[in-house]
Amino acid sequence: MVNVEIAYRQCEQMIRQHSQTFYKAFSLLPEEKRKAVWAVYAFCRIVDDIVDEGSSPHEELKQFEQEFTLFLNGVMPLNNQYMWVALKDAFSRFQLDDKPFFDMLKGQGMDLVKTRYETMNEVLDYSYHVASTVGLMLLPILAPKEKVALKDGAIALGLGMQITNILRDIGEDLQRDRVYIPKELLLKYHYSHLELQHGIINSDFIQLWEHMAQEAEMYYTRALETMHLYPIASRTPVKASALFYREILRKIRDQGYRVFSEKQFVTNDEKSTILSRISG
Q: Which of 88, 129, 233, 244 is the most exposed place for a label (fewest CB within 10 A)?
């Protein structure tokens, strides 16, 4: 069996490697909460990698869900043992709810069967399953006494972040033959799927992009309105993650909406500036 401290360190390496944004934000947490966040992140990352990089993703995702069910019943899976060891410790310290974990698995499975979306409501349903669920997983760690009061805000933050991901990763998703821009918005702004495939940035595309960006901004605003309910130790990390992600939208605007060939990031210096404003 993997030592629990070593298991947590491997989870930390995973979040540090794959998400500097979340790593920087949640490094501000007290140690016990910080480690639990690493474990939850590792769970989500492994599932994400199965869907995006697995050789037989349908079967691998089904097997992973079976392993999670065994884990909940006290049986330690052999695959990815470091993650399960860390997650077991996190479950023992915090009253984690298994429902958002299963909902997230369902959402990742959507990517294996659905690559086009008709309506914004469909996009929001997908976004809830792959992103809002993460916030719901983390609430018992970040704000155990305010889980109910913060639920809507956590869902809103996930929606804002996932729409931001969609708007940032348009080119990358096209390479995977995935289009998360809903057909109803393509039609509304007279922007064709052919133009999307060719990466045409024109006034129609910018209006379409801004429509979704404004929706993301609305969800960020809704989430930020609930920040005062988080305990002080958790408030800054959660607020930082929201502001770091929202800053991506500004970066894309500043770079002329070049989302087909570039992927915009918030630099460490920019993150430090945002953090200084929060804590200042």
A: 233
